[in-house]
Amino acid sequence: MVDREPAMTADAGSAPAAETTTSAAGTAATPLFLLPLGRGTRGKTWWVRWAVDRALARGREIVIADADRTNATLSAYFQGVVTPPSADDAEMRDWFAAFVERQIAEQFNALIDLGAGDLILKQLAREIGLTAFLDRYGIRPVAVHLLGPDPDDLAYLHDVEQGELFAPAATILVLNAALVPRNRAEKAAFQATVLEHPVFLKALERGATLVWMPRLAVAHEVDARRIAFTAAEDGKVKPGQPPIGPWNRQLIHNWLRDMEENFAPVAHWLP
Amino acid sequence: MSRPPRQDRRLRKVLATLRAHGGPARSPLYRWMRQHHDALAAAFAETPPAWGPLAAELAAVGLTDADGKPPAATNARQTWYRVRRDLARAREQPATTASVLAPDEIAPAVHAVTPPTTAAHDPAALPRPRMALDIRPARAATGEPPLAAPAATGASAPGAASAAGAAAPDAGVPGPAPVAPATETAAAQIRRLFSTIDAGKVPLPKIM
Fold first, then answer.
1. Which residue from A29, A49, A52, A64 lies 20 to 30 Å from A83 (Cα-Cα)?
2. pTM of the model
3. CB contacts, 8 Å: B78 with chain A
4. Interface test with B, best of A92, A179, A221, A234 (most B CBs within 10 A)
C-alpha cells in the first residue's frame, strides 16, 4: 500500500489499530477523545467553542462531532462539524460507533458534544467500557465536566464516576463562574454547594483536575455575532455586523488570557 | 539441530516477480519517519505536533509524499500514523504469525463447514457495514471575508495572542508550568482555585 491518503474519506472498513499505539496512559501525541459533560446550560458548548478556537489558532486539527439532539449549535461556529443522521436512538448508537472506529483507524483528535443528560453515553459507556476500549486502541479519553454552583450539577459527575462508567485518568472539573448569580460571591457560591460535596472531593482525590472558567462579561458580543473568540478579539466580524469596540475587545483578550492561564495545568489534555 | 525447511519453488518465483515488478514504494517521508520513529515519538510525547507548521518544515528539508510532492499537514499526520501502525505490527510479528489462518480455517487446523444454504454468500444476509461518515477537520465558519481588524500594538493588546498563535503555534501559551494532576491533593487544588478567584478581585486598601 502506498502511504498516500486523501483527506479523511469515509472508509467503514478501515482496519482497527489495536496493535498500533503506545500505552493507554498515553503520550502527549496520543489522539484525544474529549467529551464535555454536564446538565443543560452549564457551558459545555461554550467551552467547546473555546477549546476548538484555541486549537485552530495553533494550527492543530480537530474533528468536532455535535450529537446534541436538542440544541446543535456548533455548526453555526465551525465548518465540518459531524452530526448524526437523525435523533433516533439506534442511529445515534451506530453513528457513535462508526465515529469512534474512524477515530481509531485515523487517529485524529475528536471533540464530541452530546446533549445535556443524554443517556446514550451512559448506555454505550457501560456496554463497551468506553474508557478501557479507547485506551486499548491508543486514544486518550478526556472527560470535561462543566459545573455551576448548584449541587444538582454534580449529578452527572456522580453518575459517570460511579462504577467508573466514564472516569478516565484525564478528567477536568471546570467550575463555570458565569453560572454564579451576579449578587453572589463566586467563592462562597461554590464552596458550600460543590467544593465540599463528597462526590466532588472523591473525583479530585482519584486524580481529576480542577479548573476555574472565568466569566466573560461581554459574552453577548461574541454570541450575537456567532464568531470565534479569537476573531472577536481581533475585531473581525461578519459583513453587515457592527464592529466590536476596543474596550470590549480588550475584555475578550483578557478573558482568553485568563482561560489560557487557568487551563495550563491541563493543557496537555487539550487539542 | 534441524535445517530450515526449503522454500517452495513456486513461492520463490512469485517473490522474484514481486521484487521485479512490485507496486509503488513507500514515500521518502514514510521511510524517514520510520527510520527516526523513536526520536520522533519521544519528541511528540513532549510537544504535541502542530501538523501544519511541521509539514512545512518536513517539506523544507526535502521530504516528499508518494507523489513526490511536499507533504500537507493531513498527509504528514496520516503518514506518521501508518509508520506507528506498521512498526507496531512488525514488532508483534512473531506473535501474530502463528495465528494466521487459511481462508477456510476458523481456528488453527479447524476448517469451516460449508453452510447448508448460500446465506453466507448473500450480501443481504450479512451484517450491514458501518455507517459512512464524512469526517473532516473543523474550520472556523467565517462566512464572507471578515472586516479588517483595527491595528493593535503592544503584546497585551487584543489580537496579539491569536496572531502569535497563528504564526507560531504555542508561542502564545503563557505562564505557569503544567501541574501534574497526581501531585496535587484535593485541598491543594481548591487552594489554587481560591487564589485564581481572588486574583480577579480588587483588594481593599491596606492601612499603612
1. A29
2. 0.65
3. 3, 5, 106-107
4. A234
